[in-house]
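Hi U.,

Before I forget, here's the chain from the pilot set. I'm dumping it here mostly so it's searchable later in email.
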Amino acid sequence: MIEVSALTKHYRGKKAVDEVTFTARPGRVTGFLGPNGAGKSSTLRILLGLDAATSGRALINGKRYRDLTDPLRSVGALLDGAGPVPERRAVDHLSWMARSNRIPRQRVREVLELVGLADAAKQRVKTYSLGMRQRLGIAAALLGEPEILVLDEPVNGLDPDGIRWVRTFLGDYAAGGRTVLLSSHLMTETADTAHDVVIINHGRVVTQGSLAEVTAGHASLEAAFFALAGARW
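Structure:
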């Protein structure tokens, strides 16, 4: 489970995250939505131990990220803009991650097969297309077979087949009792994937609840998003 409680982050006196509170539960895909600058990335960075909160807390199975033992086995993450060294081969990148968390090397081959990169495993990352880099990022997130996935724009750069694969995979992953937190700008895709939705804007949670609750009275998730958050941009 992911628990974010009264999370606040100041940057140079400005509140990027303002008393954000939500829970992402096991067996559910939680969509985390908001416009650029809404506070999504700051929240995820604090959750994953990359930034410190000014106040409040963000916990993964009741612990801060930095207190996790073998974190890749607890939570797998893909952050927009993050990636491996371009000159490194994909298989070497994943092998290094596996060794750092005492994950068997066999798992590297398994995740490369899972995301469709087995034939490109020995290519250098700099030769990869954007879609291939996204697949590699998803492979890295899955390396430790974690109970929790935190994914920021996971379908960015993927072709329709890749997008469909991600949608199906995340649904199956959550159905196995795991937790998925999915940050995205794609409303239709999120509506096809998420069970619960959290909408954030100007650093504050605008609304949250099940997909049915958030979209009640609106034609779509996109319509609900603009009605609930658009006026506050």
